[in-house]
Design brief:
77% of the residues lie in helices and 0% in strands. The chain is mainly alpha-helical and 162 residues long. The longest helix has 31 residues. It binds fe (iii) ion (2 copies) and magnesium ion.
Length: 162
């Protein structure tokens, strides 16, 4: 990042990078949880669920891309090994070992709720100090709130099928 670009970050960039790397690990887990969930899920309304899970997987990958680009712009180094995702992530990876739609949706809702908490805290930390990172995190948080709502709605519909 250029001189002035650095000057407008009123936080230790190493700390911002550390927190972004943790969120970056979360995004890879979220991506994979949705992606593999879409492959194995079974039960009522399967096509609609698969479509939603695939869309969310694509969104999580976009989040990872935004975050890694900002890490690099800040002069930081992104996590380079998948093994680091497990040690750095804020939110646990929840394997869809029970592939029933209800279970898969409930697990992904938990994941979104964890993400919402993480990004909301991160916003509080960044507010007024690193506007560009703040703006990026705000955009991601908007998506996570939408994801949670989409999953809760579809789960509600499935429960009404019974
Ligand atoms: Fe995300
Ligand atoms: Fe999400
Ligand atoms: Mg959606």
């Amino acid at each position: 990042m250029g001189t002035k670009g650095k000057e407008i970050v009123n936080l230790k960039t190493e700390e911002v990078v550390r927190l972004l790397n943790k969120a970056y690990a979360d995004e890879w887990f979220a991506y994979y949880q949705y992606w593999v969930g879409a492959k194995v899920v079974k039960g009522p309304m399967r096509p609609a669920v698969v479509q939603e899970l695939e869309e969310h997987a694509a969104d999580e990958l976009k989040h990872a891309t935004k975050i890694v680009d900002r890490i690099i712009q800040l002069g930081g180094r992104p996590l380079l090994k998948p093994a680091d995702w497990a040690s750095q992530a804020n939110c646990p990876y929840i394997a869809p070992s029970n592939e029933h739609v209800v279970k898969v949706l409930e697990q992904n809702i938990k994941g979104e709720q964890c993400a919402i908490e993480v990004y909301n805290k991160l916003l509080q930390y960044l507010e007024g100090k690193d506007t560009l990172t703040y703006h990026m995190v705000l955009e991601i948080l908007e998506d996570e709130v939408e994801h949670e709502e989409d999953l809760e709605t579809i789960l509600e519909d499935i429960k009404l099928c019974k």
